[in-house]
Amino acid sequence: MADHIEVFAAVEVSCFVRPWSALSIASHLTLADSISWLYDSQGQPLFSQNPDARASASQNELDGAVGALLGRWLRGEQALELLRIAVLPRHRRRGLALVMLRDFCQRLPPLLFPKPDQALLEVQEENRPAVTLYQRLGFECYRRRRDYYGRGKDGLEMKLALS
User: Consecutive sets of 10 residues in the chain, 163 residues long: mean pLDDT of each?
Assistant: First the structure.
């Protein structure tokens, strides 16, 4: 059975053209301010790792993971940064990514000190489903990064004020 790093890596491979490797994920998870969650198909966290609280799940629970979120807490900027959010293809269009993003932007901030006042992310402009999801939650584009993802493929930097 896989540990949580292998589960994150499996979700990455299933969801991204250029997935993070298990080594990259493991390196991220060793950072003091890393945030990581695995979710089941009902939108319940199976595994969570937050800067101010560590938790884990049993192996049987991890085997049911269909969604993953990786982020970090930028303490100096009082901001959360969303690095990766993914839902296995067969579980998409059911609102799970919205649940995950709401947890990141609404449930997590009160647990941190000092409380973050904004959430940040970057997304490829042509990833319309993701851009629409972020806008639905109130994220706004504040900068365009021309050709960031290759020629003609711009990145959008987005932010959300956290209340």
Answer: 78 90 90 90 84 52 83 92 94 93 90 89 95 96 95 96 88
> Is residue 94 exposed (0-12), middle (13-18) or buried (19+ Cβ within 10 Å)?
middle
Residue 84 in contact with residue 68, Cβ under 8 Å?
Answer: yes
Distance (Å, whole) CA 57 – CA 47 = 5
Token pair for residue 103?
Answer: 């947890």
pLDDT value for 1:
33
Q: What is the pLDDT of residue 163?
A: 75
Q: Which residues contact 28 (CB under 8 A, 6 or more apart)?
A: 20, 34, 36, 70, 72, 83
* Token pair 């970090």: residue: 72
- Cis peptide preceding 45, ω within 30 of 0: no
Cβ contact 51:34 at 8 Å:
yes
